[in-house]
From TrEMBL:
SUPFAM superfamilies: P-loop containing nucleoside triphosphate hydrolases (SSF52540). It catalyses: 3'-dephospho-CoA + ATP = ADP + CoA + H(+). Its EC number is 2.7.1.24. The gene is coaE. Catalyzes the phosphorylation of the 3'-hydroxyl group of dephosphocoenzyme A to form coenzyme A. It is found in: Cytoplasm. This is Dephospho-CoA kinase. ATP binds at residues 13-18.
Length: 202
């Protein structure tokens, strides 16, 4: 039977990676959209040679891998270049995600994506799980984890989809405002519920 697809998302500092790893520990097949975005630009993949042809070898590190921060600066300042890059990479990332999800043998499979809502990826999911967190806790966790200032984190939050928008698209919400053991037990509870679903629906 084909596994149904669960989209797992959450803002910066929400704990979505921790939640995802608990699902993986329970034997659920998962793909991280951020990993897929890295895989498509690995050395030897066509996308990397197209990017270096367009931007020159300055965007490659000495070992031949992509210098992400240089590329980010280049496209950040030039909307036309950013569009070109998105048009090149988005279909490849979609295909990469599809390939990895198609190998799933668990009853359901998970796509972990911080941009699940913004990118429209949620449309190809049968169900959406939002890892939610109160703003103050989100700021504290992100500042501690990324060694960043409150201003930097607020700037990131500003460009991410609002919490209200995420809540609007979520079928399930896990409020991650307690300790790690509680998160693990909540993931286990959701997992047991998900095992009862057919095609992501009760």
């Amino acid at each position: 039977m084909t596994p149904w697809l669960l989209g797992l998302t959450g803002g910066i500092g929400s704990g979505k990676s921790a939640a995802a790893s608990h699902f993986a520990d329970l034997g659920v097949h998962l793909v991280d959209a951020d990993d897929a975005a890295r895989w498509v630009v690995e050395p030897g993949r066509p996308a990397l040679s197209e990017i270096s042809q367009r931007f020159g070898d300055a965007i490659l590190l000495p070992d031949g891998t992509l210098d992400r921060s240089t590329l980010r600066q280049r496209v950040f300042q030039d909307p036309a270049q950013r569009r070109w890059l998105e048009e090149l990479l988005h279909p490849l990332i979609r295909q990469e995600i599809q390939n990895h999800l198609s190998r799933a043998t668990s009853p359901y499979a998970i796509l972990v994506s911080p941009l699940l809502i913004e990118s429209g990826q949620y449309r190809s999911m049968q169900r959406v799980l939002l890892i939610d967190v109160p703003l103050e806790l989100q700021l504290q966790r992100s500042m501690r984890r990324d060694q960043a200032s409150e201003e930097q984190i607020r700037a990131i939050l500003k460009v991410q989809t609002s919490r209200e928008e995420r809540l609007r698209h979520a079928d399930d919400v896990l409020l991650n405002d307690r300790d790690p053991d509680w998160l693990r037990s909540e993931v286990k509870r959701l997992h047991n519920f998900y095992l009862t679903l057919k095609g992501g629906k009760p």
